[in-house]
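Q: Please design a sequence for this.
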């Protein structure tokens, strides 16, 4: 049994000038999470020891990942990618270990690709390459007669023949720690940029008789780097596409896979249907046969089987029970819990409330800090008056009650089981079960009353 360790060294010291932003490049958000966060997640999925080489925006970058288990390695001056790995390699103690080099601004790299690269690196060194439509600016891969990588030539150092090569260096590589340590110590900065190039380790390894594998990545998108906001939008697009395809593979039907935004982890059951312009953020669970209408925003919520979320609804930290319907134009704020077959209709806002089985709130209503029993029917324009300007209070409506339209429920208040509240009531006291309660001024007619007349102008 070998007890070697896998290390990832993530290069994240660069400034990212072209972002034109106060936020360091590796903290720019992709699907709501910093670029570096995506790379860290992938590094963790490899069960590796993570070293991050940082420099620019040091404080912001470190504090954004304060709770992560990271060995932070300061590269005070950015003297090239080879120099960046040189400052980190002393933290890899065992020469038998394996090292993977990743980049804080190459966020879409997949675990599976890296697993394969690590496997190929058993010869000593493997580099991840890709066939580029436009190779300009990238390091070109020069292969030998047997297909092994011979060297990488940077664009600025390449001759005509080399410039015509379409296979480019992604920058990502995996190799034996001892070999890398050895090659890194031999790097020179005699090149067009006077930098220590990580890419030169290929030629140095070959000189030691190592067969360097060049592994082609599946797509350019997977190894795309982000230097400006245009490329940031590009990776966002690729990310969205990847997530959409993933959902479809798991059985969801998407009205248009180019018009869904998934910024988190979504679990779907079978036969889920998602209409256009839906935004899904955080951890979301959509059970079998759930239907999400157009323009819905769903954040950290669970929707149980057969429930329907109609157009333009917003759900945050909420739970929708089986066969319930929500919307159109409904808003479920945090800590809303709907049981089964609940109906929350248009222009209804619910906050921190529980609605039991079969409860209906069909139109124009605010329900906050409330506990609503089974089969309660709440009429249009009802408001739970939960706030006195300082404190919040609870409204309890027992099962089978009927709340007439336009009722103000001044909390704390409890509506007894099976009771009926007349429309337009202002309820300030608890009501008895099974009775009709009316709390409004009696209607009266003033006979002979005349409308005021317009005064003549003088
Ligand atoms: C590098 C590769 C090139 C490859 C390309 C892919 C080298 C010499 N060249 O070129 O073959 O095609 O990536 O995008 O490696 N960084 C540091 N410290 C440094 C220098 C860089 O942390 O001293 C980080 C940067 O923040 C950046 C990454 O390493 O995230 C790549 O550096 P960059 O200077 O952009 O390399 P390229 O010239 O693009
Ligand atoms: Ca670059």
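A: Design:
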């Amino acid at each position: 049994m070998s007890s070697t360790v896998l290390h990832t060294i993530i290069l994240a010291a660069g400034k990212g000038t072209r972002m034109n932003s106060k936020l360091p490049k590796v903290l720019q958000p992709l699907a709501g999470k910093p670029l570096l966060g995506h790379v860290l997640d992938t590094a963790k999925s490899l069960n590796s020891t993570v070293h991050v080489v940082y420099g620019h925006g040091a404080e912001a970058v470190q504090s954004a990942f304060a709770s992560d288990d990271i060995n932070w390695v300061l590269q005070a001056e950015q003297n090239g990618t080879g120099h960046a790995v040189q400052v980190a390699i002393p933290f890899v103690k065992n020469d038998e270990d394996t090292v993977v080099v990743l980049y804080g601004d190459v966020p879409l790299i997949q675990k599976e690709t890296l697993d394969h690269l690590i496997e190929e690196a058993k010869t000593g060194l493997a580099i991840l390459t890709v066939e580029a439509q436009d190779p300009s600016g990238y390091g070109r891969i020069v292969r030998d007669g047997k297909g092994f990588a011979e060297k990488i030539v940077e664009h600025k150092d390449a001759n005509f023949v080399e410039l015509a090569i379409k296979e480019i260096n992604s920058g990502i590589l995996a190799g034996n720690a001892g070999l890398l340590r050895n090659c890194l110590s031999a790097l020179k900065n005699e090149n067009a940029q006077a930098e220590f190039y990580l890419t030169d380790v290929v030629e140095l390894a070959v000189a030691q008789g190592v067969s360097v594998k060049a592994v082609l990545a599946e797509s350019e998108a997977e190894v795309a780097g982000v230097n400006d906001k245009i490329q940031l939008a590009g990776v966002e697009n690729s990310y969205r596409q990847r997530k959409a395809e993933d959902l479809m593979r798991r059985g969801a039907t998407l009205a248009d896979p180019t018009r869904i935004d998934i910024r988190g982890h979504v679990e779907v059951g079978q036969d889920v249907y998602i209409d256009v312009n839906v935004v899904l953020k955080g951890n979301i669970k959509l059970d079998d046969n759930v239907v999400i209408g157009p323009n819905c925003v769903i954040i950290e919520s669970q929707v149980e089987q057969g429930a329907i979320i109609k157009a333009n609804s917003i759900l945050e930290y909420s739970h929708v029970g089986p066969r319930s319907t929500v919307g159109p134009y409904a808003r479920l704020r945090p800590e809303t819990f709907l049981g089964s077959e609940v109906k929350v209709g248009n222009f209804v806002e619910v906050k921190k409330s529980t609605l039991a089985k079969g409860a209906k709130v069909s139109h124009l209503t605010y329900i906050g800090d409330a506990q609503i029993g089974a089969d309660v029917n709440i009429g249009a324009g009802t408001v739970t008056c939960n706030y006195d300007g300082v404190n919040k209070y609870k409204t309890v409506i027992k099962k089978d009650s009927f709340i007439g339209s336009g009722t103000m429920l001044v909390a704390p208040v409890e509506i007894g089981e099976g009771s009926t509240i007349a429309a337009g009531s202002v309820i300030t006291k608890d009501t008895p079960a099974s009775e009709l309660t009316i709390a409004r001024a009696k209607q009266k007619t003033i006979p002979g009353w005349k409308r005021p007349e317009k005064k003549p102008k003088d």
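Q: Thanks. Anything notable?
A: The longest helix spans residues 229-249. The domain at 6-223 is CATH 3.90.550.10 (Spore Coat Polysaccharide Biosynthesis Protein SpsA; Chain A).
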